[in-house]
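thread: overnight batch results

M.L. [08:02]
morning all. the overnight job finished for the chain we discussed friday. pasting input first so we're all looking at the same thing
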Amino acid sequence: DKSKRRHQCPMCPKRFARDQTLENHIERHKKVKQKPIKKYLCDICSKCFAQSGSLVAHMRTHTGVKPYVCNVCNRAFTKSTYLQLHLRTHSGEKPYICQYCSRAFARANTLARHITMHTGEAKYHCQICTKSFRRLTSLNEHTYTHTGQRPYACKICSKRYNNAGSLYAHTKKCKLQQMNNQVVDGFGSVDNVCQAEPPVMIFSEKKCEEVEQQQQQQQQLPQFVIAHVPTTTVEDDGIYGKKLQGFHYGAFANL
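M.L. [08:03]
and the structure it wrote out:
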């Protein structure tokens, strides 16, 4: 009866009725198994495997063959286990349940990582300083602060960072800057537009072709940019008569 088996293993779907039984079961997970002899060698990358089936599955990473196809979305995978995990995204199946908060997960490793939030366990220790981390990725990124490595590179400007979070924040700013540069393209640089003298054109009844072209460009720009591009107004200076004078409303620097 599942109702009596309230104690679930954090490493597999098995449940137990007694605490001691669960502890004994977890110890079996933690036992270090003797490493098997890896006699199957990949001819491409020289990686070794203990079983021939593992080598066959590994070769698919080189050939690109993905024989296991999802019958719902047609997504393909190199291993049947990957397909089984993927199918849970469609079925909603979450067999791994947290014993502390009853939150359910589709994968055992996700549950194990979640449980460390409750226990506070930080099993990944830095060998250079005394800091410990719950996730291996966090430890690796921390190690880069000691070694000076910056493996995370921006695809737009090639600037490099030592952690994924900093790269993500930078990429958002970089994409925004790239978008702004595309918007002002054709009007010159931001500094040139802001510092330029307003153009002066003699007014006539015939509509100026330059003004007409400028109005067409404004209609194609986003609304927030229109207030910043040069516009026109008619003035009478009393000496030269009516003339059409360019007027700059705002600063591109505020974009």
